Amino acid sequence: MRKLKRSIIEIALAFSYILINQSNATGEILESSNANIEKWQKIAAKDIQRAQEIIKEAHPASLDYSNQDFHNWLYAGYEKALIYAQKSKSKDQAWAALNFYTTGFMDEHLRVWRDSPNTVDLHWVGWNMEYRNEKFLVVSAAENWPKELPKIGDEVVSCDGLAIIDYLKRDIAPFVDRRVGLTNTLNKLAKYITEEQPKNTLWNSSRSINCEFKTPAGSRKTLEMHWEKKSNNQEIKNSIILRKGIRQIEPHIYWIHISNFMLDAKDHLDFEALLNKIRMLSSADAVVLDTRGNSGGNSLIGTRLIYALLKESMPAQENSTALWRISSQAKATLESHRHSAMQTEGSDSFIYKFLSDLIESMKLASIRGENFVEQISTSIEKDEHSAKNTRPFKGKIVLITDSNCGSSCLNFVDEVMQIPGTLHVGNTTSADTRYTDVATVALPSGAKLWVPLKVWIGRRRQDNIPYVPEIAFDGDLNDTNALQAWILDSILPHAKAIGMP
């Protein structure tokens, strides 16, 4: 009997010991979890605070008090973003809180990004959509999938009972891009419904459960979404294909690929060779300028290309003035650009001399206590000695754009559209604001902030207004063969030589 009592007591003590340990372990887990949450809240707040400081220090609009929208968001948006920071419970939510602040400025040149491995597994639902003709249409689908998929060409009506445009505005745009009036933005946002974006996470997961589709014939069907991991991402359509070079597609008709304004040393050699070929197109009947895939870079690349084609008949640049905000970020950025120009093009290049003059002007203006320095003229004529002995091109010009065209690509479109008779076709471009030329500044978490350094005064193109082509291409703009046939059969016969009324 005594042994039995002892056994019962020992069991009770052991059970109590287990309960105490479990309680301690649970407490430690909760304490660790709370500490982790607090860590991400602090990281988000510090990043947002530093982002605001940098914008105040370097952005031209921070000294322009007539830009009320900018100043309202600079401060009111800051407070709203800090509320998100205080609610952050993870790394992803800390990132979303920071994005919430920067997207509120409605400027593609003011945003944040972070490094992440390219080998990150990507989950998707087996199909993708794009915004075409005021509808969200299925444009690609996996060949093999465990669940039924929509057909290419089907309209995506809603997901989880919410119209697609409302879904984008509510759950995705505030953390990615709020400019929902742009086709480029809608296509960017739509990817979040069908693909997880590990490099740019949202506040909450956007994994849809079911979506409703409408066939071209008008019938409707609701399908359950099945998410799968695709580590190689081979089945996911990439709509951007960079092309380069020049080719003759028919006698006296030339197609010039202009998909890259961000050139390295090898690219610069190829570009100089391209310019030499363009200078010899004086007697061509037509030139097609294909900017598909071009999202910007160095604006002088586009200016030099146009001058190589038109020589002295190149239209004068628009009557606008570029002012650089003087800041430590601007000085460091220009010095970095000049160093890159030395490495890729040499000290005798036009861009190196241009940057050197601008840096010197900024130093002198800074000594005088000024806040801005005017950008010197970027006249390209002195840089094109070999063009003097060739006649300017006088034929037809067709300009092709897609929704990726932004920043310096838009500057190129500005210049091309000043040429009388140019015919613009393809898709509507992206858009930017008058604030351009960015610095990349590190935030406390290691994330990077893009902040504009320059403002255009008197720019003809208004903020966030895209170029809409005179004739839109209704097919897949990435299908070069179909696009080329369309240009030859339906566009060039109706185009006029430049300069003709």
Describe the structure.
This protein has 3 domains: 22-113, no CATH class; 122-230, PDZ domain (Pdz3 Domain, Roll), CATH 2.30.42; 246-494, 2-enoyl-CoA Hydratase, Chain A, domain 1 (Alpha-Beta Complex), CATH 3.90.226.10. The chain has helices spanning 2-58, 68-87, 91-103, 164-176, 183-194, 265-279, 299-310, 328-344, 350-367, 408-416, 480-491, and strands at 111-113, 122-124, 127-132, 135-141, 155-159, 162-163, 210-214, 220-224, 228-230, 244-250, 253-258, 286-290, 321-325, 372-374, 396-401, 423-426, 435-442, 448-457, 471-472. Strand 7 (210-214) and strand 8 form a beta hairpin. By secondary structure, the protein is an alpha+beta fold. Helix content is 40%, strand content 19%.
Count of domain modules:
3
The CATH top-level class label of the largest domain: Alpha Beta
Q: What Rg is obtained from the alpha carbons, in whole angstroms?
A: 28 Å
Rounded average pLDDT: 89
Q: Percent of residues in helical segments?
A: 25-40%
Q: Determine the number of helices (DSSP H or I, runs of at least 4 residues).
A: 11
